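Thread amino acids onto this structure.
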């Protein structure tokens, strides 16, 4: 049996150990490179996943917005349809208004003529005021800057004033021709039933006779009642019974 040189054996072992160490270092280095590459790859995957999740969330949000817009557009379509129907109705109404306006003007003119005739035939109280009102309405009818509705309102207002005269009592002062002499008198109007006067000095009194269309003199016994009526009309005395002559129409 041959003897192995211990030095040679140690050298061989050292060489083998060195070779194994080098191989192990290479394996470790490659493993570290693989791990580092795997980490980079995972980081990219995580980044892509986050990006995909964000895009998915945006996609869902956009879908919700699209659904909302679809509902909103459908509602707008209904509103537009209703507005078109309303516009058609307004256009039809405007056409009718034009027809009515053409018809209402002759009606107002007839109403004014009727009112003028009525005032002329009525007892002659406040003649200047009533005639001025009618003249103002006639002048207004010729103006282009006044709407038909305003003209009609004014005509109805004039009629209402005349209606109110029939249920009120009124006192006013004016001039009256008595026996060819103009005198200042106090008039007492009781609805449309009676129009009386008394001179300011209290010496003469009279009442309007609708049949003869003139004032007729009253006796002195009526003067106190007329003065009482004047005070009632001026709210200087509480309402009370009056004894006055009435010219009843046949």
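Threaded sequence (250 positions):
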């Amino acid at each position: 049996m041959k003897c192995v040189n211990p030095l040679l054996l140690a050298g061989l072992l050292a060489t083998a150990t060195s070779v194994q160490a080098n191989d192990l270092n290479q394996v470790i280095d490659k493993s570290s490179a693989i791990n580092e590459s795997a980490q980079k790859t995972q980081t990219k995957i995580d980044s892509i996943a986050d990006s995909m999740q964000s895009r998915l969330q945006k996609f869902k949000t956009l879908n919700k917005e699209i659904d909302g817009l679809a509902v909103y557009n459908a509602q707008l379509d209904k509103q537009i349809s209703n507005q078109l129907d309303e516009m058609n109705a307004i256009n039809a109404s405007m056409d009718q208004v034009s027809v009515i306006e053409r018809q209402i003007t002759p009606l107002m003119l007839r109403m004014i003529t009727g009112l003028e005739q009525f005032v002329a035939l009525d007892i002659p109280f406040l003649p200047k005021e009533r005639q001025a009102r009618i003249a103002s309405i006639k002048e207004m009818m010729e103006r282009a800057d006044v709407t038909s509705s305003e003209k009609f309102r004014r005509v109805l207002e004039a009629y209402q004033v005349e209606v109110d005269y029939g249920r009120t009592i009124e006192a006013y002062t004016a001039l009256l021709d008595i026996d060819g002499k103009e005198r200042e008198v106090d008039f007492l109007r009781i609805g449309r039933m009676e129009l009386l006067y008394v001179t300011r000095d209290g010496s003469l009194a009279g009442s309007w006779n609708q049949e003869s269309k003139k004032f007729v003199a009253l006796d002195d016994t009526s003067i106190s009642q007329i003065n009482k009526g004047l005070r009632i009309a001026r709210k200087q005395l509480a309402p009370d019974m009056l004894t006055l002559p009435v010219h009843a129409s046949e």
